[in-house]
Amino acid sequence: MATMTKRISIFVFGLHKAGKSTIIEYLRQKKFVPQTPTLGVSISQLIFQKLVMEFTDVGGQEVFRKQWDSYLAKPHVLVFVIDALDRDPNHITDAKGELDRMLRNPKVVGTPLLILINKIDEPLAMKKDVVIEKYGLKEFSDRESAIYDVSAQTGTNMDAVLNAMTSIVLKDEAIEYFVNEEIKQQSRNLLASYKDFYQKGNDNFKNGLLDDALACLNLAKEISSNLFQLGILPSGKEYRNLTGTIMKVQKAIDQKEQAQAEKPTRSYLGTLKEEARTVEKRDKVFKTVSIFLFGLDRAGKTTFVEYLKNDAFQNQNPTLGVNFTQLVLGNVRFAFNDLGGQKMLRPTWMNNWKAQDIMIFIVDASDSARFEEAKEALWSILNRPETRNRPLLVLVNKVDLPDAKPLVLVESALDYHEIDRSPKSIYEISVKNNYNLDKALNFIVSLVLQDNEMEKFVSREIKRLIKNYMAMYDAYVKEAKVLEKNKDFQTAYNRVYKARMIQEELFKHGNSKAHKEIKKCDEWMSKLNSHFT
């Protein structure tokens, strides 16, 4: 039986050049795609969780505004777009008049309204509060409404807009029932896959198949993120147990490889330091990499640096002010500016900005009460023009603690996916248990790989990571084929999309075959998309 869909109507209006079409294309393609002005009307669709979101985008030129009513069927949502760059008093008056006229139209009585202030990425854009004042915007007592400042070029707040649209339409009882039934089925499928990979991972671990165990458990962890978003694993206990098991498997792999090499047991960092001492006897340091290390107090910044220095976990007192620490690996000196994270010290962080090569932000996964505070602290630095184009590494620390939240929730709390810079990366870590610290160090080291002497410091973790990614990719492809055969095209599409994301990661790690696989995924997604458009 063909997959059912529910059609949602969204009417997008505003003056010409406000960016209506560009916003719609960003929502559809998750990237900036320049658009020509709409002449008349343009209708496009976005498939989201079995919902067909149909956007009616009307031209904003004066000659077309009189025709808006012709295309205005009973929509589920109204979206009014404002150009934050347009300060022309006549244009503002025209826009206010069109908004007022639309809201008095009998066809949209009570229809929810989203107001999008676009182009906020531009230096000359008006601030949100200035736009609200000039346009006389307020809460509308006769309908649900919200105002977002967005950028269809950088993607700022676009996820929030999509979430707002879906939240609004889900209040429609008929749609809510439809989506709930679909989510229940999706949850059952995901839960079955999660349990299957979790069990296979544990079985492989018991049978000594460590690499296979790690691949299966990492895939189970990926699926668990979706289960958290659907509210299927609300307590977090399963996620913590899974993380703990992965830590044990990785430790067992390290011990096995060290034993096979017939070398004394030592950590990845210990190996780096031994190589560093050998090189230092021969050469001088020729490169210094400066690191801007910041985050809230008690996140574990100083503990992280001290672990890198001493190759052992030691509790540290909170940094007051700034702590300068240096670590030499081979021919490279890493200089850490460890900034105190107390509230009174955060306004002084930029006083210590010396155009550092890398920024590292550390957040406590167990301190969910301060996630919003952490987000504000992170973005207070990212929004500074001095820090643009600087690589960013986000470390989610203390994932071993009982109250630790999953990575997907921390990413959402920090608006991590809204960060527009490259390279960037985010890892869960536990300094106390030496979990994923080698990945964090690999990210730092990879930024100086143009120095031939540094290539020796690329750890076996990268090869292992690629192997795990390949196992996850194969699992997603296999599952997508079964779903496609069963005509569950939407879920199959989601699996292929995840498979494509894995290939993008492999491409970043230099896998030459990844580009070909990405192309295959794009063609497959296009084929699946044709079944529900």
Task: Quickly describe the structure.
The protein is an alpha/beta fold and 533 residues long. Helix content is 46%, strand content 16%. The strands form two sheets. It has a six-stranded mixed beta sheet with strand order 2-3-1-4-5-6. A six-stranded mixed beta sheet has the order 8-9-7-10-11-12, sandwiched between helices.
Mean pLDDT, to the nearest integer, reads 78
The level 1 CATH classification of the largest domain is Alpha Beta
N-end to C-end Cα span: 16 Å
CATH fold group of the largest domain: Rossmann fold
Low-confidence stretches: 278-283, 450-461
Radius of gyration: 26 Å
Plain-language structure description:
With 533 residues, the protein is α/β, with parallel strands linked by helices. The chain folds into four domains: 166 residues, P-loop containing nucleotide triphosphate hydrolases (Rossmann fold), CATH 3.40.50.300; 76 residues, Methane Monooxygenase Hydroxylase, Chain G, domain 1 (Up-down Bundle), CATH 1.20.58; 187 residues, Rossmann fold; 68 residues. It is 46% helix and 16% strand. It contains 16 helices and twelve strands. It has a six-stranded mixed beta sheet with strand order 2-3-1-4-5-6. The protein has a six-stranded mixed beta sheet with strand order 8-9-7-10-11-12, with helices on both faces. Helix 7 packs antiparallel against helix 8 and helix 14 packs antiparallel against helix 15. The longest helix is centred in the middle third of the chain and has 34 residues. It is globular and about 80 Å long. The chain starts with 5 loop residues before the first strand and ends with a helix.
